[in-house]
Structure formats: structure tokens, C-alpha cells
């Protein structure tokens, strides 16, 4: 797990504040603090853990603020390493919490569904994807179910200005990593907060949830919003402030690299399907991953399957593969080819 860097004054009333994610290889999430005449506004809040809360509150003091001073927080998306402390922050400061309406809808659904029901739903999807029963049992027996994030108070749609007096900070809707993921463009400061949409080295995860859903096209939306973020005014002069790793420049070029990676992955999948890998489990387990499939834990396998499902969904939308069912398990074939016997 990487060591967290110090709180850093980036100039022009902007600070980076690393908030740890205990036990996670990502190490930390950058929370950004933007000052204003009526109190600071945060970009994201960090993971819900006492160690994370201590890092957030002590880091705020290093910026010359207290947690009680915080005016509000804009969440780039609902994932727990970004939204986890929103409830504690709101209770401590009466700050408003804003998010894109598509992700607000997800937090409302998560809060309305008991954790065990969510887990049972994932297990059912794994079974219907062809996963072996030992993987399903491992998922059901795994500890540490993650609770639902706090539901935000305010919705923030594409192009809307954040309530940050004296500054021009605007939402840029970039769906894909989540349906409501947002970047934030500080137009008067030459910066863009890229959340998890554009990272300097990591390729952000894009998954289909539920795994076998035929609704939406998250990867298609992600690739379109990669192109869109690269068209921001003076895109390659903007300083990019991501949620993980390190700040960078060359936004449009990095967006093209991420897009190229996914296009290569689509080619790899079509080759596997042509060879007769027809279920989601067969395609997912047949792909090359950073960690060998045999060594991946069940939660990592589920994430890999969701990413594979998103790629298959885009191949369906492009008319390159088709989905059929044999029993309860969907299968994919290249358009114009019959399934091979299994």
C-alpha cells in the first residue's frame, strides 16, 4: 500500500488532502479543499473509517480550516472511498452534500435494500454467469459488508455551477465509472478535478451492474465521455487533479490512451468468443489480468466479471456479438456464427 503524501498547498486557494483507505492497495483518496469567503468546499470526502476521519479533520486544520467551517462537499461519485465520510461531515458541520442525480438515485436504492439482499443478488448473478459454486459460497461467506453511503442533499447536473462563492467551479458529467460520475472544471483556475474518470496510470474500472443486465451501455458512455473531457477548453494545458496517484497534464492524450486500452480489450474478447468461450465466466477467466485469475479473490473476480460484462454489452451495441440463453445461463457468440458445442 503506497505511503500517503503530505497535505499540499497547490496555490490559488486549493489544497490536496490524502485520506487513507485502510487495508486497500490504492492507499488513499485525494480530497481537495477549495477555499471561499464563506467557508471551504470539498471535492469528495474519503472512506468511512476512524483513521480516515482523523486524516480529514487534521488535514483541514493544516489548510487553516476546521471541519465545522466546511460549507459543502461535491462528490464525484457514490463509491465509498469518495462518499464514505459524507454523513459524518454533514453531522459535524451542517455542510451540504452534492452529487449527480444518477448517482443520488443509486444511493437511494442502496439505502432501501438490506446488505444481505444486495449480496444475495450478486450471488445469483454469478451463478447465472456460469461461475462455479465454490466462488459463490466464498462471496456469501466473505466478511465486511459495505454499508450504503449517505444520500446527498443537492443534485448537480452537467454544466451546473457549484455553490463556491467567488469561484467558477462547474460539473462535467462523465458517466461510465458510475452512471453519475462527475469531473469538476475550475475554469478560473486552470484545473480539472478528474475523480476516477481519468487517472494518470491506472485504467478506471467500468462495470455492468447487475452483471447480466441488458439496460444501458456503461462502457459506451465511458468512451464517449473520455472524448468529451478531452474537448474542455485548453484541455492539454489544464492541471488534472485526480482522486488517486498524482496530478498530471495532457488530459486529451491520456483520455485517448484509456480509450485505446478498452478497444484492445474488445478485440481480445472477440477472439476468445471466436474460440468458443461463450459464458461470462468463460470469457472473464480466459482474459489476461494484472493478477492471475487463479490467484484472484472472489470480490476481485466479481469486479473482473462486471468489467467483462460491460465490454460484452458494448460489443452487443456495436452489433458484433449476440446473446442467447441455454437454460438459465446466457451465452455470447460472434454475429453470423453459431455457438460451438460445449
Structure description:
- This protein is an alpha/beta fold and 342 residues long.
- It has a domain at 8-109 and 149-258: Ribonuclease Z/Hydroxyacylglutathione hydrolase-like (Metallo-beta-lactamase, Chain A, 4-Layer Sandwich).
- The protein is 36% helix and 18% strand.
- The protein contains ten helices and 13 strands.
- The protein has helices at residues 50-62, 80-83, 86-93, 101-112, 115-128, 133-141, 218-229, 251-274, 280-286, 298-317; strands at 8-11, 14-20, 28-34, 41-43, 72-74, 96-99, 154-155, 169-173, 182-186, 191-195, 239-242, 321-326, 329-334.
- The strands form three sheets. It has a seven-stranded mixed β-sheet. It has a four-stranded mixed β-sheet with strand order 8-9-10-11, with no helix packed on it. The protein has a two-stranded antiparallel ribbon with strand order 12-13.
- Strand 9 (182-186) and strand 10 form a beta hairpin.
- Helix 8 (251-274) packs across helix 10 (298-317).
- The protein is globular.
- The N and C termini lie far apart (42 Å).
- It comes from Nocardiopsis sinuspersici.
Q: In short, what is this structure?
A:
With 342 residues, this protein is an alpha/beta fold.
Keywords summarizing the entry:
single chain, about 350 residues, alpha/beta, Metallo-beta-lactamase, Chain A, seven-stranded mixed sheet, four-stranded mixed sheet, 13 strands, about 20% strand, disordered C terminus, hydrolase, hydrolase activity, WH-like_DNA-bd_sf
